[in-house]
Amino acid sequence: MEFIQSFLPETAKYIDPDFIEFLDKETFAGIRSRGRREVDIVAKVRFKDQTEAFFLIHIENQSSYSGDIPKRMFQYFIRLTEKYNLPVYPVLILSYDTPTTQAPSVYKVAFPDKTVLQFYYTVIQLNRLPWRRYLKQPNPAATALMTKMQIPAGDRPKVKAECLRLLATLKLTPEKAELIYVFIERYLKLTSAEKPDLRAAVCKISPRGKGLSDGDN
Questions:
Q1: Which CATH fold topology does 1-128 show?
Q2: What is the pTM of this model?
Q3: pLDDT band, very low/low/confident/very high, at 211 (cuts 50, 70, 90)
Q4: I need a labelling partner for 157 at 20 to 30 A (CA). Which of 20, 63, 79, 206 fits?
Q5: Residue 144 burial by CB count (10 A; 0-12/13-18/19+): exposed, middle or buried?
Q6: Contact 24, 81 (CB under 8 A)
Q7: Average pLDDT over residues 107-128
């Protein structure tokens, strides 16, 4: 729900936060030429104030560029619909660094005389999102994904310091905090030249550095 609140706020408004069921990962054969493929996240949610009205949210992450992703998103949609007989809300997260051009959000089948299909899905392209937009959101999903957003080279130490600050202030279980910390370390690994700037940024945020740490030190 934290991810939906940060990145799909309009959708969050009509979801019952007290009912979210994560379904087992679905494995589909033939969607890719190399055998079987798992969808990333499928959650069954309920419409707010409608006790028997459900739908699925399918969240797919793509960490490298692929030209066939629109077609695959449509194939996942069809197969999830067939299996569960529920409406499917498809979401694609693009976490790659390049390219930064706007990715398509539609799969279209058209002929000179007719368009027979226009399938739309939501695209969250992290490398096009300004990190400062999510700075004031006390949300673990935003904290983790901030590391893959649009970050000018000179802001990298500051972004990492802010991520660590947010992590230190969020009330998370030790397991969840460790997961997000590992994510930050993996996807925003600083160079030796950037580490002094990180320490300076940490001290500026918290002069005594309380609650903030960095595995690169």
A1: Trna Endonuclease; Chain: A, domain 1 (3.40.1350)
A2: 0.84
A3: very low
A4: 63
A5: buried
A6: no
A7: 98
